[in-house]
Amino acid sequence: MKAHVNGIELSYHIYGRGEPLVLLHGNGQNHGAMKRQIDVFRKEYQVIAVDSRGHGKSELGFRPLDFQVMALDILCLLDFLKIDRYRVIGYSDGGIIALEMAMYQPKRQVQMVVIGTNYDTSQIKWWANIFTFVGYLFSILLTPFSFFFRRVKAQMGLMIFHPHIKERDLARISAPMLAIIGEYDVISRTDTRNMVNLVQHGKMTVIHHGTHFLIRQKTRELHQVIVSFFDEDVT
User: Per residue in 59-89, pLDDT tens?
Assistant: First the structure.
């Protein structure tokens, strides 16, 4: 399905029934990357799985790609679907979008789970940044020859130049937040701990032997942690 929101056609899929749960994928992916999460959570929730702006079947548009615009896309989609309150699971860049959504409309979010998520570009380990920068350079060279590489350039640029969320803005997030990170993630554990301390109700879980690819690598442990968090009383 597609909705015209915030100046673009945004692709989304709805699975199951129940309380709304938004799933947000990582950079360079689409909603299908979170198939295992869809299959688990559709049993109890109305899962809204979105292709973020410039990803999957969603349009890139003509604005520079940044997380603030992408967050507004999702909030506009929820308006279109007449959904007021929601839970959200954001993986990697999807987690950054979830953070931005919570800062825009703090009272709308019931609970938030972010997986392998940073709030500043400096929090990604240096060796991972090298691979991203090389991909960005290649995409610049190939952009004149293909629209595909225009999208790749925008996606790579998103990782290199964003985000830069201020700590005082994180303090505005009032919904209970769970930050999950792998033991060997490319995201700094120290910075993740700082993030959960900055929000009003944050907690952190480190998955033993986990990497940045927890949504496929450690799905059973990941889902157990998320289900336990969602079962907590948030009234």
Answer: 999 888 999 999 999 999 999 999 999 999 9
Q: Is 34 left (phi over 0), alpha (psi -120 to 50) or beta?
A: alpha
How far is it, in rounded angstroms, from Cα 53 to Cα 63? 10
Q: Phi/psi at 7 (nearest 5 deg)?
A: 90, 5
pTM score of the predicted model: 0.95
Residue 100's nearest CA partner among 69, 131, 134 is 69
Nearest-angstrom CA–CA distance, 194 and 41: 29
- 116 three-state secondary structure: coil
Q: Are 108 and 86 in contact (CB under 8 A)?
A: yes
pLDDT tens by residue, 101-125: 999 999 999 999 999 999 999 998 8
The angle formed by the CA atoms of residues 105, 107 and 111, to the nearest 5 degrees, is 100
Please state the CATH superfamily assignment of the domain spanning residues 2-124+164-230 in this structure: Alpha/Beta hydrolase fold, catalytic domain (3.40.50.1820)
Predicted confidence at residue 211, as pLDDT, reads 96
User: What separation in angstroms does the CA of 28 have from each of 33, 126, 201?
Assistant: 10, 19, 30
CB 176 within 8 A of CB 234: yes
What residue spans define the domains of the chain? 2-124+164-230
d(CA 192, CA 180) in angstroms, rounded, equals: 9
Q: How far apart are CA 170 and CA 176, in angstroms?
A: 12
Please enumerate in sequence order all residues whose Cβ is within 8 A of that of 135, keeping only pairs 6 or more positions apart, or say none.
152, 156
- CB within 8 A of 148, min separation 6: which ones? none
